[in-house]
Amino acid sequence: MARRKKIYEGKAKILYEGPEPGTIVQYFKDDATAFNAEKRQVIEGKGVLNNRLSEFFMTGLNAIGVPTHFIKRLNMREQLVRAVEIIPLEIVVRNVAAGSLAKRLGMEEGADLPRPIVEYYYKDDKLGDPLVTEEHIAAFGWASQADMDDMVALALRVNDYLSGLMYGVGIKLVDFKIEVGRVYDGDFQRLIVADEISPDSCRLWDMETGKKLDKDVFRRDLGNLADAYTEVAQRLGVMPKQATQMGKPRLIN
Ligand SMILES: Nc1ncnc2c1ncn2[C@@H]1O[C@H](COP(=O)(O)OP(=O)(O)OP(=O)(O)O)[C@@H](O)[C@H]1O
Ligand SMILES: [Mg+2]
């Protein structure tokens, strides 16, 4: 068997060359990292859950006409995606004050924001992914003004879709981040949603109790991360609520 070509290994995923030009296989690892990888742990099952959940969200987005890189899931840990030129930005949408926004502006975590707020962070681990404005993005040529308009439109559509989906299962979508990438179709080029959408990249709070069901469980040592992600998957119907009980082997005759 020929070895696959590894293109990139990140903190949460490995990228392999796909079976056809312009495709990539994304392998979801069990590694959890936070605070720019200062804190790390292997959480058994996380990769499987994120692979499934990202498939679920991206399939739904594709179906309502929000373009994503997702093509199909290959197995428990891998999915086939369209190769893109990643824009070096994380696009964050916030509905409720939390995390760095709450800290930066001295707001209480949990305060509803007057409207969804879109922010850009420059993807650079050495710098700790700093907040940047459209001025920086245009001046340094990371994306054009038209790209930024498209990125904001994509991010807000993802927000509408995802917050509705979560609301339906009693979960508040506090905030999330997406990455987008450029694809070329002949004379045309456009931006599509890439990377992953999973509880690693969202803040999800139970609407009744406020219980956290996202990576903050790991960041803040609030319990078992895989249990939290399993709960999200079960509520969304992505994983069965009751795992079928394996009976003891029975002797026949
Ligand atoms: N469709 C795609 N085509 C090309 N690259 C992609 C695609 N989707 C995601 N990526 C990139 O693949 C990598 C996924 O790996 P991972 O999420 O583990 O990275 P990371 O450790 O978070 O590092 P990074 O700072 O590069 O995001 C990211 O760099 C992401 O930008
Ligand atoms: Mg990443």
From TrEMBL:
Listed pathway(s): Purine metabolism; IMP biosynthesis via de novo pathway; 5-amino-1-(5-phospho-D-ribosyl)imidazole-4-carboxamide from 5-amino-1-(5-phospho-D-ribosyl)imidazole-4-carboxylate: step 1/2
SUPFAM superfamilies: SAICAR synthase-like
GO molecular function term, any single one: ATP binding
Catalytic activity: 5-amino-1-(5-phospho-D-ribosyl)imidazole-4-carboxylate + L-aspartate + ATP = (2S)-2-[5-amino-1-(5-phospho-beta-D-ribosyl)imidazole-4-carboxamido]succinate + ADP + phosphate + 2 H(+)
EC number: 6.3.2.6
Keywords: ATP-binding, Ligase, Nucleotide-binding, Purine biosynthesis
Top-rank taxon, per record: Bacteria
InterPro entries: SAICAR_synt/ADE2_N (IPR028923), SAICAR_synt_PurC (IPR033934), SAICAR_synth (IPR001636), SAICAR_synthetase (IPR050089), SAICAR_synthetase_CS (IPR018236)
Biological process terms in GO annotation: 'de novo' IMP biosynthetic process; cobalamin biosynthetic process
Cross-referenced PROSITE patterns: SAICAR_SYNTHETASE_1
Cellular component GO terms, alphabetical: cytosol
Gene3D superfamilies hit by this protein: ATP-grasp fold, B domain, Phosphorylase Kinase, domain 1
Domain SAICAR synthetase/ADE2 N-terminal: from-to ranges: 6-235
Family: Belongs to the SAICAR synthetase family.
HAMAP family xref list: SAICAR_synth
Protein's name in the database: Phosphoribosylaminoimidazole-succinocarboxamide synthase
Source organism: Citreimonas salinaria
Taxonomic path: Bacteria, Pseudomonadati, Pseudomonadota, Alphaproteobacteria, Rhodobacterales
Name of the encoding gene: purC
